[in-house]
Amino acid sequence: MKVSKYLAKHLRHQPERIGLVLDPHGWTGIDTLLAATAAHGFPISRAELDHVVAANDKKRFAVEDGRIRASQGHTVAVDLDLPPAEPPAYLYHGTVGDRLPAIRTEGLRPMARHDVHLSPDRETATRVGARRGRPVVLSVDTGAMHRAGHVFRVSANGVWLTPAVPPEFIRFPG
User: How many domains does the chain have?
Assistant: First the structure.
């Protein structure tokens, strides 16, 4: 778990802290990453890295051609170069109750991230919401959003991304 969190922090939020430079699409060389982690007192072996990438339940990382990147969730400027995709009729967003008043008036906003993250199923959204307290799962009428011209992309790990979700497309529980 510590390795996964360390990688997420530096591949999504603070690459410069360990001397990493991400390319415009968020990629960095695996050898470069391993050298940087070792140089900053957190050595990771290639076997450990491969295990974290393969075993991470959220599939947070993608590996391709000797490079690695976080699948989504960046606060640093990257273009994940994901093509637009037609979403299913509904996707889900996990949150907590104290955020509902703002969501009812403003919709879902990306906050510090580049996009709003939507889950393909209620179970995943419940786990996401539970990270901050008692979860509330919102249904998003992504079919109607798509028909209205909103753009969606899907990351390598199945998380759906869109710049914002206006409140009229959100179905609140109860």
Answer: 2
pLDDT at 56: 77
Which helix (H) or strand (E) segment holds residue 117: the answer is strand 116-118
Domain, as residue range, for 152: 91-171
What is the token pair recorded at 45? 């072996």
Find the radius of gyration of the CA atoms of the chain. 17
Say if residue 54 is exposed, middle or buried (CB neighbours under 10 Å; 0-12, 13-18, 19+): exposed
Q: Is residue 144 part of a domain?
A: yes
Confidence band, pLDDT 50/70/90 cuts, at residue 20: very high
Contact in structure between 174 and 138 (CB atoms under 8 Å): no
pLDDT in tens, 38-96: 999 999 999 999 999 998 777 889 999 999 999 887 888 888 888 999 999 999 999 99
The structure tokens 């072996």 sit at 45
pLDDT over 70 percentage in the chain: 99
Sheet (strand 61-64) strand order: 28-29, 67-70, 61-64
How many other CB atoms sit within 10 Å of the CB of residue 99? 15
